[in-house]
Structures are given as structure tokens and as C-alpha cells.
Amino acid sequence: MDNHEIFVTQSSMPPMSEYIHEISSIWDTHCLTNMGPKHQALEKKLKDLLHVNAVSLFTNGHSALEFVLEALELKGEVITTPFTFASTTHAIVRKGLKPVFADIKSDDFTIDPNTIEPLITENTSAILPVHVYGNICDVERIQAIADKYNLKVIYDAAHAFYEKANGISVAQYGDASMFSFHATKVFHTIEGGAICTNNLELADKLNHLKNFGITSPESVDYIGGNAKLNEFAAAMGLCNLRHLDDEIAKRELCAKRYWNMLEDVPGVKLCIPPSKVVSNYAYMPVQFTKDFPLSRDAIFDKLAAKGIHSRKYFYPLTTDFLCYRDAYSSESTPIAKEISSQILTLPLYAELSLSDIDRICDIISNC
Ligand SMILES: *Cc1c(COP(=O)(O)O)cnc(C)c1O
Questions:
Q1: Is residue 144 pLDDT above 70, yes or no?
Q2: What is the pLDDT of residues 302-318, one digit of tens each?
Q3: Does some domain include residue 6?
Q4: Separation of CA 366 and ligand 1 centre (Å)
Q5: Is the peptide bond preceding residue 314 cis, with omega within 30 degrees of 0?
Q6: How many Å apart are CA 237 and CA 188, to the nearest integer?
């Protein structure tokens, strides 16, 4: 039997000739960075694709998140969840703000709006929810809470690129959304990220902040940093955009194979997007509940022993990181704590073969 290794993800790449063609004009212009033609073209294309008034590209999603928190001049406390990648919590703390942790919903792992309101104090300035695994948050209820208490809403939409709910682009929600274009994401620029917003003033400020606060050759209006996406990265994005629909279609086939193979396995809970959502099939989270004969850690080890590399994503909760555990308690978010001990993301990428998926699912169903 074929026992080749299977990794949890594999970056998609355009044909090499296409990328070489895309970058060849850079040898004519000598324009390597500083919001050059590739950068401008990509921003324009993303704006149209995501139906949003403004897109500001960044060197990566994390810096985009830090810059938008700074641009919004937030103070005090930001309500978020610990069931996320380190970046979400780190961005809040690194901007001198205090994260306050709400719990998640057990069905789709996004922030539970019921747990937000009790956490609001006079120091709260924003809510930072995460569209985890591309599961779209309860955006209406979150916005209603934000409106009631005059809070900003910034979405960590790193997992939700190009998704829609009820026909509306995910980038439309809140005051701003951050997308990550890291190599492992559904759409990537090798490293990269963006802030999408309908607020043109905010976008303008971000465009200056990411370039040292320079507003014209002789004026610097903001204490900015440097987080500009370079032209080679933007070129990779322009190429990958041409293959986006194909990329997602391939992922969809893989995801549906997993769901068919695993839907009747006792103790296995899948996370299938509701019909109103156009998914990007970014991840394959599978929850191994108490009714499954093996623990999540045991099934992780069993798969690893057969060369299949899944990921305990998200485990541990950010509140259990060494750098946070003295200041926060994961006991205050019991649902997140439980899910994080039961969740595993299985391999999923466009070039994953259906026979590999069958091999993975057979191991799980034969437990
Ligand atoms: C990938 C990711 C980020 C960070 O994006 P980078 O582009 O890697 O900096 C932030 N939040 C979540 C949920 C992510 O998955």
C-alpha cells in the first residue's frame, strides 16, 4: 500500500512561466516596491472582487491587524476570543490594548454574541471577532451590540477570503476586515495581507501609516511604520487571483469527499457551512467528541504514525500560552477550552487526491 506522507497543507502556485511573465515588466520599470504598478493593480482587483470601497495591502496579515488597531486609535479593552491563531491576541496586546475574552459557539467556533455584552465596560473600545475556519461570525448581532455601545468592529477574516453570506461579501462587515495572504492561505502573495474597509478616510490613513506616515514628499503627518507589500509579492497575488476559482473548486471536491466519508462516523462532528454561505473551503476542522473511541491527541498520533500530518488548530487557546497564562484564565471560556481539546484540522489543499482523503478517513472510521 502507498504510504507516502501527507501534510496538512501545501501552498498553491501558479505555473512558473505565468509568474515569470508577470514579473518580467519589473525589469523594465525597476520599480520593486513603494506601491508600484503591481501593488496598485492588485488593490484594484481585490476591491472589485471583494465588493469593498478600499483595500490597503500590507506585508502580512498580522501587521495589517496591528496597523488598523492603531489607525482606529483604540483605547482600553478589546473583546475577542482565545480560539484563534496567536496573531489575533498578540496584535491587541502589542498595540497596548487589553484583550478581554468572550467564549465561542459550539457549532461554528465563532464568538458567541451572548457572551460579549456582559464583558463590556466603560473601557471597551472594540470587538475583534474571528471568522474561524471561514465560518462567518454572527455579524448582525455583533453589529447590533457594537452600535448599542458605540464600539468599533474589526474582523480577523484571515480564513474567510472571498466568502459571501446571503450574497454579501464578508469584507463588507464591521469597520474593517483583515485578510491574510500568507503562503498557506487559500489565496496568497507568499507573505502578505490586507485591510478592507468602506471607510475611505481610514484607508487613506492606513496607506500613510504603512509608509512611515509620509503624506507628501515634504510632509510626514503620522508616526508611521513600514509594512508595504513589494512588487514581487503583488505579482504572485495577480497570478494566483487568476486561478482562485479553480483553487476553490478543487478544495470543494476535497471537502465534500471528507464530509461524505465522515458524516456517519459516531463521535465525529463536522463543520459544514450553512447553505447561505459561499465557502472558500480553507480548512477541514473535525471535532472528536467524547463519543469517539479515541481522544483527539490519540487520533493525532495515530495519523502521524501513518505519515499523515494533521494539526491541533487551535490548541492551546491563546490564553494558555506561556506569555498570557498568568494574566488570563482559559477557564473563563469553557466552550473554547473544550473545543480546543477535541478539534483537529485534517489535510486540505487543492492538489490533495481523493484517494489520500479516503486513506485518512478509513483510519478515522476504523477506530
Ligand atoms: C494567518 C492568520 C493570521 C496572520 O496572518 P499573517 O499573514 O500570517 O501575518 C491572523 N489570524 C489568523 C486567524 C490567521 O489564520
A1: yes
A2: 999 999 999 999 999 99
A3: no
A4: 34
A5: yes
A6: 6
State which of 190, 211, 242 marks the end of a domain.
242
84 lines ligand 1 (CB under 6 A): yes
In a domain, 40, yes or no: yes
CB 79 within 8 A of CB 56: no
Sign of CA dihedral 111, 117, 121, 127: positive
C-alpha cell at position 235: 505579482
What pLDDT, on the 0 to 100 scale, is given for residue 172? 97
Q: Please report the pLDDT score of residue 1 as a whole number.
A: 55
For a ligand 1 pocket test, name from 58, 59, 132, 156 the mutation site with the most ligand atoms within 8 angstroms of its C-beta: 156
Q: How far from 350 is each of 100, 186, 281, CA to CA, in Å?
A: 36, 9, 10
The pLDDT of residue 3: 81
Question: Which domain, by its residues, includes 181?
Answer: 16-242
38's enclosing H/E stretch is helix 37-50
> What pTM was computed for the model?
0.98
Beta strand pairing status for 176-180 and 193-197?
A: antiparallel
